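Troubleshooting log. The previous run stalled partway through. Resubmitting the same two chains, unchanged.
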Amino acid sequence: MRVLFEHVTALTMDPALPELKNGFVAVEGAKIAYAGYARPAGEFDRVIDCTNKIMLPGLVNAHTHVPMSLLRGYGGGCDLHTWLNQYIFPAEAKLDPRCVAAGTALGLAEMIASGTTCINDMYMYTETIAQTVLDAGLSANLSCGGVYFGAPEDFSPETCNDCQNTKALRENWHGAGDGQILVDASIHAEYTSNGPLWQWVADYARQYNLGMHVHISETRSEHENCLQKYGKTPIALFDQYGVWERGGAAAHCVWVADNDMELMEKRSITAVHNPMSNLKLASGVARVPQLLEAGVNVALGTDGVASNNSHDLFEEIKLAAVLHKGVSGDPMAVSARQALAMATVNGAKALGRDTGVLAAGKIADIILLDASRPNLIPCHDLAENLVYSARGSDVCMNMARGRVIYENGTFLTLDLEKLRAEVEGYALPHIFGGND
Amino acid sequence: MRVLFEHVTALTMDPALPELKNGFVAVEGAKIAYAGYARPAGEFDRVIDCTNKIMLPGLVNAHTHVPMSLLRGYGGGCDLHTWLNQYIFPAEAKLDPRCVAAGTALGLAEMIASGTTCINDMYMYTETIAQTVLDAGLSANLSCGGVYFGAPEDFSPETCNDCQNTKALRENWHGAGDGQILVDASIHAEYTSNGPLWQWVADYARQYNLGMHVHISETRSEHENCLQKYGKTPIALFDQYGVWERGGAAAHCVWVADNDMELMEKRSITAVHNPMSNLKLASGVARVPQLLEAGVNVALGTDGVASNNSHDLFEEIKLAAVLHKGVSGDPMAVSARQALAMATVNGAKALGRDTGVLAAGKIADIILLDASRPNLIPCHDLAENLVYSARGSDVCMNMARGRVIYENGTFLTLDLEKLRAEVEGYALPHIFGGND
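Second attempt completed without errors. Output:
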């Protein structure tokens, strides 16, 4: 399949050609073959006129728990302890693979319609998630979020569910769909496991050259309890075990210390900023300007929608760009272009993927926004409009790996009616009984 | 015109009947005739099936400068001083009534499509704004934002432009469209005027029983300079002149003191919270939980889109609900229902208008959201979904004063093509020359 986009206005995230105005982008198979001003030669299966559209690399949601879509808004308005223990955990205990498939497809629909082409997901029933993502057409790094509450001396990978799940996921899915699915090693968090699991995960990741996905210093108490228990911060503690040998995606990093930032830069650890979730759960405001200053790669995530409650990355982009200005008092903190980089090229780097940039050779993850809507008029500056004025709902086309999966409100890989019936007819009654 | 909404799921903001599930709402002329569970008798000109929709009172944007739509994203990425002096002020100096009409219509289109039915606007060429609003069908409180930079002893209302503009606006427009347009008295801010103007505005408002619209304590330096200059905060200073005799809408209130909050409660002054603008301009975070605790009426505004850059009040609702949780560390700070009240009934109170509530006798300002979209599924709680998951783009119908002005993407009072041509063909070249 060869596709030509013409009359392209784009923010490319490619330093060699940052903006295109009335240019061309050509796609061959799953890759971008060309981005520039000369009309590419040859025949195309489809030519897409991009007049009155804005093109951007598909967005990378670098921290998600996508099946939690089913819990959107559930138990909202409570304090954290009540919310987790009386609502979220009991509901999650009732999940089965069919629920997870429905919740994943629902979350992916929302993500696709708002411009996401690649996700970094940590959850349970991950093989079900993998199949659902494969069918939907996006790319995903998937991980099991290893937890181990037993005594360190009792640990055995043979009896640890998350070790076995990680092995099965890797064996069955790593690299599936020509790299569409990648499997990462993962520790849920410091406070939900201990040394032997961390060592196993680090060793397993080294053995198979896997990425790493961990929750880090999300809340003050988590960060301070770790310091008290181990005399080290979570970032430094995991470093001792070799968890960061190939970098990693460290979700949240709200409370990381200055020393952590140095180590993160040195080890190529990405801080995945989830500003909406961090505000909603009252976790605090990550020190993003300092992370950037320290040279740390910063990406963006929505987290699960039970604590957001939206999968629209354009909300995170805008929030990341305004929040740190307001909190620091510096109107230059986190520029529009920096926020866009977090949601595209920086996310790709975190996931070890060759996407997030519109340039020849990159994966053809491409979105178009409808620039004729009143909220995008006028356009004095492309990046400013994309960050502060665009909404996920302005996305009118989503191409993932060279395939159009969403166009003008129509999902081309998901059956929305069937999906709604599955969510409302099976998943919700299964989890919540007849009361919901 | 009699309209019946059936199968209504609604958050009414009426304490007597907070939620409707499969109920009825009837509209007669510009007013709501009924909201409840018994099907109203009689003939209707139109019956609207609200299955898979959510109904909410039309939103009140309690602080705007709507013609600034033309400056959306202009000069973004600069520090405040450069932004104002090198970009915004020179551009505003080139405005003429035709530009203002185009910019107003553009901003109103964006507001209408995202569920706003009533605005509180302060700008120049206000008679042009009045005519544009009247045609578009929303309600508006309009004011001139009085400035006076002369010496106090030289002040005369006869030679002060903003006094003359306020008089003309009141004489020609106050109450127009059966109350659709109301004219407020207004002081732009403490730092852009002095005593004789404040006295004139207070006296004029008293004479004609007008509302009041003022910028208050938006930045730290503004608040502290006022304290230094007058020994009083802006709220207390204006109180001396009788500015707050009939309450008022005090925009921003980021730096108001505890004593100010007491006075605000006593004088029925509304704090109009503009969280996005305050973050983007690095003004800070208003102490909204404390304002609520002090019993102050808190409403929401977008401010002008040059500092936002969006007129979508659903963004402000969500931000108001999450920001104070994150900054205070309290996950219960500003509930979903409190945030919705700010954008509806509290805004109506600030503007002295009988809207913002779905109940018999209220103005028929009503919006419908499409609840079948993936981002609104499932719905465990109506308020949680409306605040944390809904976006302005989910609005599928906007009825203002009993008249449907927007439905399923179509504007019924604005010609979007003509409007774009006017913005791009006249207003932008007029302001920015051929370079933009």
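Takeaways: The longest strand of chain A covers residues 2-11. Chain A has 16 helices and 18 strands.
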